[in-house]
Amino acid sequence: MKQYKATLISMSGVRVYNPKLLELGLTLPGFVERSQVIASLPSLGLLTLASHTPDNWKIAYKELDHYTEQDIQHIIDEQPDIIAFSALTARINETYALATKFRQWGIRIIMGGLHVTAMPAEAMQFADSVIQGEGELAWPSLLRDFEKGKLQPHYSSLSHSGLNFNLHQAKIPRYDLLDISKYNRLTLQTTRGCPLHCHFCAASRTISSYKKKPLELIRKELDKIFGLWNRPFIELADDNTFVDKIWSKQLLDLFSKYPMKWFTETDISVAHDDELLEKLARANCSQILIGFETTTANGLKNLDKANWKYKQFDHYFKAIEKIQSYGISVNGCFILGFDTDTVETFTTTEQFIKQSNLTEVQVTMLTPFPNTALYYQLKSQNRLLQENYWDKCTLFDATFHPRNFTVQEFEGLFQNLMARIYTEENKKERKSHFKAVLKEKSNTINT
What we know:
By secondary structure, this protein is of the alpha/beta class. The chain has 17 helices and 14 strands.
């Protein structure tokens, strides 16, 4: 059987354009800490595609954050038959430029991921073929078509395509392609999608509807990771892990069997289930990130289809206290730029962060990612700053005209807030409170 070669390239890392925020980031470790973690994560999507690749294809995996012309020439010299790109929206224009360069050397270019799924017609201008939605079914078909000289410009696993990938068919990602020494954590996916479907979210249903991975497969993936790394730190590549509480408890029972620390994203409903919190603590969960979104109840109205988050607002403080009382730190995520935001919102956000005793916080700018409800709303209102603003989709750069501020006023208020909440002093204060909670918990257990 003829042998082929495919190079999978992850366009990792995101660059903030706002010069004042960039300057702040150089001196405020709390501000850059989370972005550094995200940039250091391998592309689980590409590693998953690698596991669904036929045996007659040799796979190379590469991450291009900071790269040189020599790096590009090295890839060309390896003479891959196909280069498959995965890129965040913020780096898609850079990906298009690289793809154009590789195509000039006769290399066929494949693109997939969130942005390409949202904007397939745009991506097809720079690629020989694009994959919309989940890649596990489309990728093997694409490779077979390539071998026959019949590569199609478009492959889709979205609902209208008639294809639906069942996670029971999933294979273990090719973690063996990684140089483990370069990472401080690895990614593992247990669920896809999120049923809340917030109007600004670019991930909740773009690739897949909400679905859970079989526990037996998760166990095999953990065994694979532990075969490469004795005591890994694992970040779950989930949008909302603990939606199904019964399944979640079984997942946590599995996790508790492995000597690992881990992090994930979920929603505030975990605070309503004491048994789940006990299992979270027993399974050595280091932290959960919860999207509180805003510190004003009015801002939560119509944020998701069922107004679920709005109904939770009055429980925010108690939920945070309860979760952290189990020794699980909470990273609170807040977004600024909603139409309900005023100058006062920046003050209440700072006050909420302090009064809630959150261990960590993540504050970002509202960003209209392509094909979201927010994107179409702002586009219809002629409020987007430009047609192609993809490189500014960093979560820290303004991309549209806010309702109650000028762009300059919004950026100034955001910068001032960041300068205050991400000082080393405030970061230490948040950490020290959580340490006191852990100490009290330990004393309670020992008495």
